[in-house]
Design a protein that fits this description.
The complex is a heterodimer. By secondary structure, chain A is of the alpha+beta class. Chain A contains eight helices and 20 strands. In chain A, the strands form four sheets. Chain A has a six-stranded mixed sheet with strand order 6-7-8-3-9-10, sandwiched between helices. A five-stranded antiparallel sheet of chain A has the order 13-12-11-14-20. By secondary structure, chain B is mostly helical. Chain B is built from 13 helices and no strands. Classes of the chains: A alpha+beta, B mainly alpha. Chains A and B meet through strand 6 and helix 2 of A and helix 8 and helix 9 of B. Bound molecules: adenosine-5'-triphosphate and magnesium ion (MG). Adenosine-5'-triphosphate binds next to helix 1 of chain A. Magnesium ion binds next to helix 1 of chain A.
Chain lengths: ~350, ~270
């Protein structure tokens, strides 16, 4: 597959403050790419670079292999679903959605059918004549999606397009967007800070933090093999403790040594040890290396979430087995569930 | 209940200074000196149809020129960085701080037959042209004096146009021209209508500008009314009748204008 959009060593500064710090990213044709990261990490800025609203301080933006740094937004075959909708307040729902097609002088008859299709998709039939100022937040968001999607751009940029919707509607729209993306064979660059959304919808997830790309990979890669503690923590909850590697396949944390499967660290290198809450099994306390006292139990539907005080560290455990508060329990983790990660300095990305 | 008490002073104010004078004007217009009802004065207004036509025509032209000149100024102003906007806005207002008469006098000396402009023309071997005492000079005076009243309402609506809406339009394929006509102009309609109102109403009823820059041949409604109260042809009843007709004309024009405003933003 071809790269449709490439960002090469993009740096963006606002008033001397560096917001994107050397971002490189290749997006393949027909791919569903999700940018995932905490608030303020630079997701919207990255989209705005692709859409053409920001000229990067340095670096290149390629579209279909051509450099488009100075191509204005209206000449790019890209449409955006804006984070804050940006609907036209003087137009009704129908005219908002039809805007892009009218600019391109598409015949009104075709506009009628294409806008109709979109209205069905976003469940807004009957709202055609309604002023967009008299819509709820969720309805406005759906108009914004329809307004961009109706143009069938090669690349669609979606900036948290489902943020204002309730859970049920959001799940429905997730499936719908994914279906449309596959059916029309569009490239989606999707921004979210909801990790579950990122994992369920995407072909590729790009985890960002603080203006750096932390990791690029498939949802399973990102989940199962996070490259550092930040990614591990951001993608699902994790227990992260300081440790060291006395030798290959042995890791020491909370004062004890454990068997693991990682090698290639220098002797006694300090590392982050990451253990997922669902990978900690409860065993009798007598023959356990790790023990602790149950501090709190919360029922989460499928499992119980327990906080276990193990003196050196408070462990979060997800278990279907209920243990009352105050019980002393033992904990076991299989070697391959102990993830060892090189320490990264706070402000750094991982070289990829 | 509380609202009613609070609004009482305004109601009194409005009665004393707006409603009562209006009634008095209307009363004067339809009575004679000894108090009997008559429509004679209103009928007499018809004699001055040519002055009405000239006033409407000149103020329409002046308003149109103001709109064309003010629109780009207001737009640029609204897109400037916030901290520059204040300074620029002050520059726009600056002429208004000077006395109205003084400003208009200044134009008299500029436009006079021996004025600076004709002097400059003379230097390059042109003219002298007749600049003062023409209808063009009256329009110029109107544009100069009332331009800020067009810029300000335009600026204040444009400044509220969200930058992201403009971005959305270009994202959807609009070039700058199409952004202007599909988004910015429609969104500034309330500013356009209120700017037109604020320029047209004083322009159509002005008398100083026409007196000073138009000479005797460019009499406007304002001059006509003034003459009925202060001039040789003292006739307050006719003056009141002319005022009443003028008011009716303005009302009709403004009602037509408001048809172009979006329904939730009716202005006067
Ligand atoms: N126009 C601007 N001028 C100055 N700083 C800016 C500008 N736009 C964004 N920033 C800064 O750049 C950083 C990244 O912003 P960005 O909008 O890309 O974050 P984000 O990842 O989209 O966050 P969120 O999830 O909250 O939307 C933030 O620290 C923000 O304050
Ligand atoms: Mg954002």
């Amino acid at each position: 597959m071809e790269n449709i959009v490439s960002l090469k060593n993009i740096i963006v500064e606002f008033d001397g403050e560096r917001v994107l710090k050397n971002i490189s990213l290749d997006i393949k044709d027909k791919e569903f790419v999700t940018l995932l990261g905490p608030s303020g990490c630079g997701k919207t800025t990255t989209l705005r670079i692709i859409a053409g609203f920001i000229d990067p301080t340095s670096g290149d933006v390629l579209f279909d292999g051509e450099r488009i740094n100075s191509l204005p937004p209206h000449k790019r075959n890209v449409n955006t679903v804006f984070q804050r909708y940006a609907l036209f307040p003087h137009l009704n729902v129908y005219d908002n959605i039809a805007f892009g097609l009218r600019v391109k002088k598409v015949p009104e008859k075709e506009i009628l059918s294409r806008v109709g299709e979109m209205l069905d998709m976003v469940n807004l039939r009957g709202f055609e004549k309604r002023s967009v100022q008299r819509l709820s937040g969720g309805q406005q968001q759906r108009v914004a999606i329809a307004r961009a999607l109706v143009n069938r751009p090669k690349v669609l940029l979606l900036d948290e397009p489902l943020g204002a919707l309730d859970l049920k509607l959001r799940k429905g729209m997730q499936t719908e967007l994914r279906r449309i993306q596959q059916q029309l064979e569009l490239t989606f660059v999707y921004v979210t800070h909801d990790q579950e959304e990122a994992l369920t919808m995407s072909d590729t997830v790009v985890v960002m933090n603080n203006g750096h790309i932390q990791q690029i990979g498939s949802p399973t890669d990102i989940y199962n093999e996070p490259v550092n503690a930040f990614v591990a923590d951001f993608i699902g909850e994790s227990n992260i403790v300081n440790g060291s590697m006395p030798k290959d396949c042995v890791v020491e944390f909370t004062g004890r040594q454990f068997e693991c499967v990682d090698k290639g660290f220098s002797p006694d290198e300090t590392v982050d040890v990451v253990i997922r809450p669902e990978d900690i099994k409860i065993i009798p306390a007598e023959n356990a290396k790790l023990t602790g006292i149950v501090e709190s139990v919360v029922f989460k539907g499928v499992h119980y979430e327990m906080i276990v005080d193990g003196v050196d560290h408070k462990w979060t455990i997800h278990s279907t087995k209920y243990e009352p508060v105050g019980t002393m329990i033992g904990m076991h983790v299989d070697p391959y569930d102990i993830h060892i990660m090189k320490k990264t300095k706070e402000d750094e990305g991982t070289e990829l | 209940m509380k609202m009613k008490v609070l609004s009482a002073p305004y109601l009194v104010w409005m009665c004393v200074f707006i409603v009562v004078p209006l009634i008095m004007v209307a009363y004067f217009a339809v009575t004679t000196d000894n108090g009997s009802l008559t429509v004679q004065h209103l009928a007499d207004v018809g004699q001055y149809a040519n002055i009405f036509v000239r006033s409407i025509w000149l103020s329409v032209i002046a308003t149109a020129i103001c709109l064309v000149v003010a629109y780009p100024i207001a737009f640029l102003l609204s897109r400037m960085e916030k901290h520059h906007q204040g300074t620029m806005l002050m520059l726009v207002m600056l002429p208004m701080w000077m006395n109205f008469l003084l400003r208009t006098y200044a134009w008299m000396t500029l436009l006079g037959n021996n004025g600076i402009i004709n002097y400059l023309f003379g230097l390059v071997g042109l003219g002298p042209y007749k600049l003062i005492n023409t209808s063009g000079a009256v329009v110029l005076g109107m544009v100069y004096n009332y331009l800020p009243f067009m810029i300000l309402p335009l600026y204040s609506v444009m400044e509220k146009i969200d930058k992201s809406v403009i971005e959305a339009a270009s994202d959807l394929g609009s070039n700058p021209r199409s952004v202007l006509f599909r988004v910015i102009v429609p969104l500034s309609v309330p500013g356009i209508t209120s700017g037109i109102t604020m320029v047209f109403v004083p322009a159509i009823s002005t008398f100083i500008i026409s007196r000073m820059l138009g000479g005797g041949s460019n009499l406007l409604i304002g001059d006509l009314i003034e003459m009925q109260f202060l001039g040789n042809s003292y006739n307050p009843h006719l003056g009141a009748a002319i005022s009443l007709v003028l008011m009716a004309i303005i009302l009709v024009i403004m009602t037509v204008m408001n048809q172009f405003s979006p329904d939730d933003q009716v202005l006067i």
